[in-house]
Write a structure and sequence with these properties.
This protein has 167 residues and is mostly helical. The protein has 8 helices and 5 strands. Helix 7 packs antiparallel against helix 8.
Length: 167
């Protein structure tokens, strides 16, 4: 029989949410970024300099992927999971979608969506509509080589990964 001691209970799905979101934020080869045009600035495992400050990013920047995951997990707990009242969310799939929305679009938006959209389908549909409204002509960034690219398709693909997470 498998050891269930590390599995989250029905009211606390933080580990599932954290690891789902970390997969979206890049793996061992692309967990750090400093992309021109990205308003977040330098980012390590999804923790941006714009949101968390230069001092935090300076500490994270030289860490290995594994050490960075350990270092950012309490940040995600404190700054995203608790403000969306994650422990009160009983459905794991909905928790993953809500948490990823909070990380990508902010706590206020996630809490607003939580008040209105009560299931995975409706929250994902609303998130896609929001993206279309914010970026009707795409969301263009410039890579390190100077090439422009539209990140809107990858943001929408991320929403679909949330939607289909348990499918």
């Amino acid at each position: 029989m498998a050891d269930d001691s590390a599995r989250p209970n029905s009211t606390d799905h933080f580990n599932l949410c954290f690891f789902f979101t970390m997969k979206q934020e890049g793996g061992p080869n692309d967990y750090k970024s400093n992309t021109e045009g990205d308003t977040g600035g330098r980012t390590v495992c999804g923790v941006s300099e714009a949101a968390h400050g230069k001092e935090v990013l300076d500490k994270l920047w030289d860490l290995s992927y594994e050490d960075a995951l350990v270092a950012v997990k309490p940040i995600y707990w404190r700054d995203y999971w608790m403000p969306i009242e994650g422990p009160s969310v009983t459905d794991a799939h909905y928790a993953v979608c809500l948490f990823d929305l909070a990380v990508n679009s902010g706590i206020n938006r996630a809490n607003s969506f939580k008040r209105v959209y009560k299931d995975v389908t409706s929250i994902c549909n609303a998130r896609n509509s929001m993206l279309d409204g914010f970026y009707p002509n795409g969301y263009w960034l410039t890579d390190e080589g100077g090439k422009k690219y539209d990140v809107l398709p990858s943001l929408k693909a991320r929403v679909e990964r949330c939607r289909n997470w348990m499918a």
